[in-house]
Amino acid sequence: QHYFIQSNLSYYSMSPALAMVPHTNPVDFTFTVLCFMCFLIGTPANAVALYFFSGKHKDVPTLIYIVIAGVDLLSCVLVLPVGLNLAESRQSHFFQDPTLCTIWGMVWEFIPYYSVFLVFCLSFLRTLALLQPMIHIHKWAVIAVLVGYAVFLMARQAIGLLAGFGVYKYEVMSGYCWLHITDEKYQTSDVVFSSLQLAFPIIPITTSCITSIICLARSIHFSKSSTSATRLKRRASITIILVTSVYIFFNLPVFLNYIRYLMAVYVTGQDFLDTDNSNEFLKKHIWLLTYVLTVALNALVNPVVYVCRMKCFRRRLVTCLTVRRRKLAVAPSPPSHRNESDKVSEESFKALKEARIRHKSENEKTALRRSRSQQRRSKRRGLSLGRKRSMSQGKKSSASQGKKKLNTRKTQESIVLSNECADLALSMQRQEYLKLEPATTPQRGFNSTP
Q1: What gap in Å lies between CA 180 and CA 170, rounded to an integer?
Q2: Residue (of 238, 85, 50) closest to 173 by Cα position
Q3: Residue 312: which residues within 8 A CB-CB, separation 6 or more?
Q4: pLDDT digit string (tens) for 106-149?
Q5: H or E element that contains 256
Q6: Which of 147, 273, 338, 400 is deepest in the core (most CB within 10 A)?
Q7: Helices 43-54 and 60-78: crossing angle, nearest 10°?
């Protein structure tokens, strides 16, 4: 294979008949499998994440999560043409169409830049909240910043195309559509912008992530009381740290590739294509790996972090996977003009309508039976509870009555005892009196007074 390199324009121009990637390339096969995995798994997972976050309370982290889920969903969808192109030995008809190539290239160029900016905002705001808990971040200010950066990226791409600074083209060695810049001044500015927006943000993001980890460890170590609110904040901080760590892991090859590119162009004074041609992997796969696959794999792994860290998202995903769609029998609409030839359809429509009415009445009967049985059960439970209560009240009343009877018996016994004592005393007095009186005196009765 012969490759003709234009060092001034910094891109390949080759004969498509000679630049054919073989079918038995194991790296292309691996990249194809990864692209299809990102599309088949990442697309529904990010769709569920977008639906989940859009239904929550719209605070600042939730808004950023919504935008991240939308961008990840878009990247998982747009990676499918790359996988199909690699499966077709990099000769796909999708990228050979100039219009489709331009649309795909513009949308995909927007995705990595905006993803880096979103992760930076999420990490920076969480670190600021941990360092200064009393600072209130306005939601509309964050929305204005996100929308402003998106408009800036789209305006930059539109101005570059309208001014004729570059054209989106497809090359077999790259494996995707990218911007071929024809102006040297614009190429220098594009290199500086892409380095500052794609490669070097990993440094402040890593610093912010380490600072958040230190602040979180200190808060856990020094806090004596942990309320539910502080636990939720810590859990959210750990989730953001994990999302940031996943981004750092997948963006590290991008950073190293840009360092290699800048060292080759601006330090050694060589063309970066010379360094790419020195190795077969660098020549065919390095930019496809760092510019396309790392972004798609990051979008695939983010829902895994949501599942591991968010219980509500886990429940929503389980319900979406296990829900069964009910089959609703929709009756056909009656024809507007019924003739004698339409008697069969009319009879079938009536029969179906009667069947639906019977089914509805049966459902109503079963619902009525269930409600009656529930009422009976509730009545039985109420009767049993009433019996238990009455028995307990009866036991209490019988105990109180027994105490009253005992008290009355004691009072009656005391009264009888006092009467007996009084009679005994009277009888003793009478006996003494009879001894003192003479015999001539008549004997008095028991009830007579002495």
Answers
A1: 9
A2: 85
A3: 52, 56
A4: 899 899 999 999 999 988 888 888 888 778 888 889 999 999 99
A5: helix 228-262
A6: 273
A7: 160
Mark residue 269 as left, alpha or beta (left: phi above 0; alpha: psi -120 to 50; beta: remaining).
left
CA 305 vs CA 2, 12, 246, 339, 366: distances in Å: 45, 39, 9, 63, 46
| Nearest residue to 130 (alpha-carbon basis) of 203, 53, 197, 230 | 230
Kindly state the tokens that stand for 380.
């039985």
Among 80-89, 411-420, 436-445, the minimum mean pLDDT is found in 436-445
Neighbours of 226 (CB within 10 A): 11
Given a contact cutoff of 8 angstroms between Cβ atoms, the answer to whether 170 and 101 are in contact is: yes
Determine the Cα angle at 140 with ends 139 and 144, to 5°: 125
Stated as kind and residue range, the H or E segment containing 223 is: none
Is-contact 241 211, C-beta < 8 A? Answer: no
SS3 177: strand
Residues in Cβ contact with 259 at an 8 Å cutoff, skipping those fewer than 6 apart: 199
Q: Could you tell me the two tokens for 138?
A: 């306005």
356 token code pair:
């639906």
Whether the model pTM is above 0.85: no
Residues 37/29, Cβ–Cβ less than 8 Å = no
Q: Are 50 and 63 in contact (CB under 8 A)?
A: no
Spatial neighbors of 258 by CB under 8 A, at least 6 apart, are 194, 195, 198, 199, 200
Q: What is residue 148's predicted lDDT score, i.e. its pLDDT? A: 94
Give me the pLDDT at residue 328, please.
Answer: 41
Three-state DSSP at 437 gives coil
Which residues, including other chains, have CB under 8 Å from residue 65's CB and lie 6 or more apart?
Answer: 49, 53, 122
Q: Which pLDDT band holds residue 365 (cuts at 50, 70, 90)?
A: confident
Distance CA 354, CA 359 (A): 8
Comparing 18-27, 216-225, 359-368, 423-432, which segment has the lowest mean pLDDT? 18-27
In the chain, count H helices and then E strands.
16, 4
Give the C-alpha distances (Å, rounded to integers) separating 93 from 14, 38, 75, 374, 399: 18, 21, 20, 66, 97
d(CA 143, CA 139): 6
pLDDT of residue 367: 77
Enumerate residues 6+ apart whose C-beta is below 8 A from 124.
Answer: 204, 208
